């Protein structure tokens, strides 16, 4: 190659875009404690060292040949090979760090060389993977460095003149033989002086981070132990009905671990007791985010929406979620039954204010839904006096308006059962007598 053509060749050390970029980036790397990006920069920097050696009495022809393999296309092939060595070392020695290190480094290699070659990332990614597959096939077959170097030598020969992704070797066999001699010597030097350096960097990184992770895990374990102690202390204070101090104890647990599900639920319940409904809803909401398959925070958030904020849509959604997650827990059905009953009663009052007696007397869907939920509570827990009481009151309320004999009979039966289960429901005795008198009047009118 003449001096003029050499000066304008892309494939020289001075015209390599990657070399220029590495020279800038390597200054930013903390060589004592490199992060993953720093490891990537050192890998590419290592790849640029290929061909850097001095041969005593090196002739001009050999020196001229070497200049053909200092460009970015050759660096890409060396980077692929170096990455393969890095990845294989991780698989054998530190598999737990493979995803943490190998994945981002491979991504950055593709990004950098796609920019260098002005090519689509998908194409460079495919070529990168294909080359890694070739090396992996050789390694997987139990072959050693000699076979790997033969594959790499062929890939480097294809890059002569900075020819990226070439398919055929130059036709002049004499040039190939001479270049092959140069490449073999360079690879031997690279393997001896530079591959150990990148492996050492990876080894140091893994060693330091394994130790760091061990310390972090130890600290986390200590925090968890302390957190459980604080949680148990909070539960002891709850048992003593010391609400304020219990709330403080749970707050300490949550400060150390914002996703402590049990502490969030318990503090939410304390906020309800302390009439801090906004804070209670916030804790129940976070608890749901932490564990969306637990029914308890849905149930208690539903109660807050229902009783404190009068947000029926949100309350109904949460009651229904609690029921879906715990279909044999009566609390969700009972709470939703109360809400449906309140919605129906509100509509009845509005109808009465408008003198709409037909609407006032009709049995709405919400009322039927309330009856159905109370009935479900009774089916699951036959001695639930509250469900008998509320269902009886619904039957009685509508029976007074529409004189439905079936509702009257059901109200009398529910009041009777509620009083048998709990003497405190004795106040229902008057309601029951009214229903009996109403039943007698309805029966006489039908005669």
Task: Write a structural description.
- This protein has 447 residues and is mainly alpha-helical.
- It folds into 2 domains: 3-193, no CATH class; 221-446, Serine Threonine Protein Phosphatase 5, Tetratricopeptide repeat (Alpha Horseshoe).
- 77% of the residues lie in helices and 0% in strands.
- The protein contains 21 helices and no strands.
- Helix 3 packs across helix 5 and helix 14 (295-307) runs antiparallel to helix 15.
- The longest helix has 45 residues, at 195-239.
- The radius of gyration is 40 Å and the shape is elongated.
- The chain starts with a helix and ends with a helix.
- Residues 1-10 have low confidence and may be disordered.
Summarize the structure.
This protein has 447 residues and is mostly helical.
